[in-house]
């Protein structure tokens, strides 16, 4: 079978490295709750970033050629990447993907992405199959403390499940206000293009397929607010997901956590073929909401938790 990528991959002992790439920003016009997002320069700068950030899953494509070098076609059927985002990337910066293998775990490896100055962009695990123990994010979620004094997430709780939402992604389907572009447009700007992506949805666009109707999940998150992806895991169970095929998404809140600046909602999204009870893919996503972006945060916190 013809190799699906032209990407040069180098090996140095246990480490596979991809080339330096400059991912492209395609979310500068994204909006939700009637306002711009963290990917808009002005909005991001108000929250302390130097400009609009490149969406985290954009980086997943740089790992696909490396994963294919390790596992071949299994990667497209049952691959999983699980990462914690540590630093943002801005358009014009160069980053590279690295996978560090371990002979003791042939179906799982460690991943990281770095900027030219050595800054670590993301860390986590990558694997094929489901018998490798907890992923990087499953282990991370299990060790987090419960969210204290919730305000933005006051009205949601672990165990909430959404109704199933129908989704599809044909090549020229516009993916809405959350993702104002098509798969065909994305393919022209991906760091690692491949003929395979004419029929199989690339990993970074699985995130778009799952998230583009996230506002229909009926979870009572208070807003308006600005959030970002802090942790993300995408798993294929019976892949690949097909371009133009009909799917249904079900979401479950599996964790609530927080930090000094954020309230985080961890959601497990499951992808089904219509009428099926067997998931074909899953995504675990930590959406970290910036407290300062919610105008009523201080007022409501004071009312809910008086000193």
Provide keyphrases for this structure.
Thiol Ester Dehydrase, Chain A; 307 residues; 13 strands; eleven-stranded antiparallel beta sheet; two-stranded antiparallel ribbon; alpha+beta; 7 helices
Overall description:
- With 307 residues, the protein is α+β, with helices and mostly antiparallel strands.
- Helix content is 16%, strand content 29%.
- The chain has seven helices and 13 strands.
- It has helices spanning 41-46, 64-71, 74-78, 136-142, 183-187, 203-211, 297-304; strands at residues 10-12, 15-17, 31-32, 35-36, 79-85, 95-100, 108-115, 120-128, 165-168, 227-236, 246-258, 262-272, 279-290.
- The strands form two sheets. The protein has an eleven-stranded antiparallel beta sheet with strand order 1-2-6-7-8-5-10-13-12-11-9, with helices on both faces.
- A hairpin with a 2-residue loop joins strand 1 and strand 2 (15-17).
- It starts with 9 loop residues before the first strand and ends with a helix.
- Residues 34-47 have low confidence and may be disordered.
């Amino acid at each position: 079978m013809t190799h699906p990528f032209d990407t040069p991959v180098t090996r140095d002992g246990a480490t596979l490295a991809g080339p330096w790439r400059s991912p492209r920003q395609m979310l500068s016009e994204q909006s939700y709750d009637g306002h711009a997002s963290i990917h808009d320069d002005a909005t991001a700068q108000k929250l302390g970033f130097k400009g609009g950030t490149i969406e985290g899953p954009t980086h997943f494509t740089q790992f696909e050629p490396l994963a294919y070098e390790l596992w071949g076609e299994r990667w497209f059927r049952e691959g999983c990447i699980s990462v914690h985002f540590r630093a943002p990337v801005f358009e014009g910066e160069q980053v590279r993907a690295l996978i560090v293998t371990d002979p003791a775990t042939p179906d799982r490896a460690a991943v990281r992405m770095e900027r030219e100055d050595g800054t670590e962009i993301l860390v986590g695990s990558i694997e094929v199959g489901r018998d490798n123990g907890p992923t990087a994010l499953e282990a991370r979620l299990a060790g987090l403390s419960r969210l204290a004094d919730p305000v933005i997430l006051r009205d949601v709780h672990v165990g909430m499940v959404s109704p199933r939402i129908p989704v599809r992604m044909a090549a020229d389907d516009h993916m809405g206000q959350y993702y104002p572009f098509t798969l065909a447009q994305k393919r022209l700007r991906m760091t690692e293009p491949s003929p395979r992506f004419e029929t199989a949805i690339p990993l970074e666009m699985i995130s778009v397929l799952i998230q583009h109707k996230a506002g229909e999940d009926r979870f009572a998150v208070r807003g308006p607010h600005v959030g970002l992806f802090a942790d993300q895991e995408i798993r294929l169970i019976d892949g690949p997901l097909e371009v133009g095929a009909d799917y249904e998404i079900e979401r479950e809140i599996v964790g609530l956590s927080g930090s000094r600046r954020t309230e985080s909602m961890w959601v497990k999204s499951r992808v089904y073929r219509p009428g099926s009870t067997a998931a074909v893919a899953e995504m675990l996503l930590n959406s970290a909401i910036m407290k300062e972006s919610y105008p009523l945060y201080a007022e409501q916190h004071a009312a809910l938790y008086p000193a």
